[in-house]
Write a structure and sequence with these properties.
The chain has 300 residues and is mainly alpha-helical. It contains 14 helices and 5 strands.
Amino acid sequence: MYDYALYWLDTYKSVKSRNTYLSYKRTIEYHLQDFYSLKLQSLTRGHIQQLINSRFDKPRTCKLIALVIKQVVKSAIKDGILAPASYEVICTDIALPKYAAKKKAIIKAEILDSILDIDFADREKCFLYIIYGCGLRREEALALTKDDIDFDTAEISVSKALCFDGNNAYIKEPKSQRGYRRVPMPGFLIDFLQAYTQVSGYNLITKRDGSIITESSYVKMWKSIKKKIDNSLGAGVSKNLTAHSFRHNYCTRLCYQIPLISTKMIAKLLGDDEKMVIDVYSHILEEKEDCQSAISNIFE
């Protein structure tokens, strides 16, 4: 079982994104190691359930283990190693622990708005102004080059992402076709980038010496950003601040502009699915709703 899982990984999943490949690899090496001496043909539903049970306090890990095993079994069926009916017998009705996502800390909009008034270094400004003004994902902002900035149309072109493998960076395509998009730039960002691109290198966000950014240099930059926010606004203000906080803020602000802009267009600007936007918008409506007045109004 273990050996075939590694074969499946390197044969059929090597073309997946680096992060996905490494996630599968870790799952096999750290968890399917329990099946090292188990023949694939001897695998039973009970084996899988026992493995899940031994890690039941880690819901996300269990979900990933089940996902990998199911894909491995399907592959073995296609390769003629297991009988076609094996999947139903082995992989159905596996009990998984329930996963409750941690509630994300909401950063006050006024804190995020204050970044325009704080004295950041230019490369810090570049990163923050882009994720604040365009709602880009961290990896999308880090991958931007001068060629992605169109001052004629006042838009940023998103077509790639910069991710980390260990400390080293690599460029990959967006997760889906939705990730390819053009995002309008607000006035403050246009003004900043027009000056910044005159002195920056080809890559907009780099290490201090101008070379390709690494994970450690990004971590240092983010720590510097948070320190300057705390120094300006008060100790601990940036405690729960992440790059995604700015993306959420961007989405929320656009939702307040409905019906001037549709949920479909907001999703397009974010490179995400419309369901995510509707979820955010639903929370906004819940905050504003007045059930008693609404019922009274329809009968006036």
